[in-house]
Amino acid sequence: MSKNGYLQIHDPLKPKGYAVGIDLGTTNSLVASVIQGKPRCLSVDDGDAMLLPSVVHYAKEGGVVVGARARKLAAEHPTDTIISVKRFMGRSPEDPETRKLGHYQFADGPGRVVRFQVAGGQPVTPIEVSGEILRALKRRAESHFAGKVEQAVITVPAYFDDAQRQATKDAGRLAGLEVLRLLNEPTAAALAYGLDKGSQGTFAVYDLGGGTFDISILKLVEGIFEVKSTGGDSALGGDDFDRAIAQRVLQAMGESSPSPSLVAELLAAARKTKEALTDAPEVELGVGSHRQVIRREDFDAWIQPLIQKTGIVCRRALKDAGVTAAELDGVILVGGATRVPAVRRYVAELFGREPLGDIDPDQVVALGAAVQADLLTNTDRQDEVLLLDVIPLSLGLETMGGIVEKLIPRNSTIPTAAAQVFTTFKDGQTGLDVHVLQGEREAVEDCRSLARFRLSGIPPMAAGIARVEVRFQVDADGILSVTAQEQSTGISQSITVKPSHGLTDEEVERMLLDSIDYAEQDIQIRQVREQRVEAERVLMDAAKQLGEHGGLLQDGERAAIEAAIERVRELAKGEDSHAIKEAIHALDEVSRSFVERVMNQAISQVVAGHSVEEY
Ligand code: ADP
Ligand code: MG
Known about the structure:
By secondary structure, the chain is an alpha+beta fold. The protein folds into three domains: 370 residues, Nucleotidyltransferase, domain 5 (2-Layer Sandwich); 116 residues, Substrate Binding Domain Of DNAk, Chain A, domain 1 (Sandwich); 88 residues, Substrate Binding Domain Of Dnak, Chain:A, Domain 2 (Up-down Bundle). It is built from 15 helices and 23 strands. Helix 3 packs across helix 4 and helix 13 packs antiparallel against helix 14. The structure holds adenosine-5'-diphosphate and magnesium ion. Magnesium ion binds next to loops.
């Protein structure tokens, strides 16, 4: 524990072997390290391959195979070979994302985690599978250095939530690595380009990998990267380019019901062809006895609709971040699929500038992670090691219904900042209470209250219209300042607190343990509270409609609606979130035709020359 109350991750004076940066990717993973002052990717086999395919095979005879050899085994042993495990990290088995994914056999077991039933014994969790990938990288790095590697910076997508981040960290620990920090992938790319050396700027990071597309807009302020917005498509990547080629080849072969093994062989050939087309104008693809020349021009045309999908996502991310393409200071290319010349051209056109692409887009994230690992461990860079202090407990805000919304997750390295936009709940509401809390639990009373203040002077508007941005900023000394600003008038109010004040190590520890012990219960509490807030909103709305448009009610309707209202009100006092939800739904149903009449009347009055504002 350092004197300002923050947990110190390690003692910088006691070196612990080599530190590495790891890009734990969906398709491929890499390990890099700063060697003689320069970040370099390390080879993952005895040749010069830097990419370790993120594939783990569990053999019938026991034993685990990771990487290129595992990928070769995938077609023959689909359920014993886990590909794209990253997509399962931190997700529960009921998660719709999880259900969508694949052909794996899920095993039952305690807790809300996915378990793959694989050959050779016990079911494995995504954390364990990722742990195998990390262990393989650690081993490679150790044989490279002929020494111990015990510390790593691991990258994660900027949109990863707390559970996904925690799962990644646990995978690291399982592999025998001390995770110095989880670093956002786009931030890692920016570090690799040394963009943090500039004073400020706004950057777009365009990441097209094997199966996912991510766009992030980053803002650099005084050496801290802040993620302004993220967007993406979790089902779009270089693999889709392979499928586009494979489809055309199947057509040319006149093959309408290919066998699974032909498809697998064809996809592998298509991938090779695609990669070769990056450097050659035409490439011959061979599968079985079929030979076909694919021209880059044709390939470009086939993938054009796929590339254009990324454009829609990028425009939205720019809009969310409140910047135009022209205001950006740079665009960075990340991911193997951005090698495709047509993708580069499209990005240049979309952002109106040449993207930065001279660092290998496969390696750029791992290189940035290595730079960060070096910053955090290199004793020659003592000043920068200050960055090691972390926030021991999450910082958040009370929202409707007594739930805590976390703005800065625990273990965030300081300095850091985060912002979120809130709105008013009631018509004409002119004040907003800001209640700052610390802790991991979901309910306000289970967290520690740090400060409260009220932003007043919000101009009266209909509920949900006002926009109040609440910004948390923690400086290098661990001082938290919170600012709330109403966006249309600019009125603002702020407060400064020192979040760690008065907390002992034991208290921090206890709060963390509690959050684990009460996780299930907390989820339920949160659901009930959310439903109660929804119930309150619906009741307010119903009362308003009945009051203003009672004349439109038909025989017996009022009694039915009022009974449904009463039921919502009753159940909202209880603890059953499903029941509340159903009661709200029932109220919606009985009032549907009444609400339609209200709308129709409003529309006909507008048509009759009234203004919309009257309603
Ligand atoms: P992820 O971030 O999902 O782990 P990568 O960044 O490693 O993925 O990107 C993998 C994708 O990049 C694959 O679809 C691969 O075929 C593609 N790729 C790799 N090299 C090239 C190349 N030279 N030309 C075109 N595509 C490439
Ligand atoms: Mg990647």
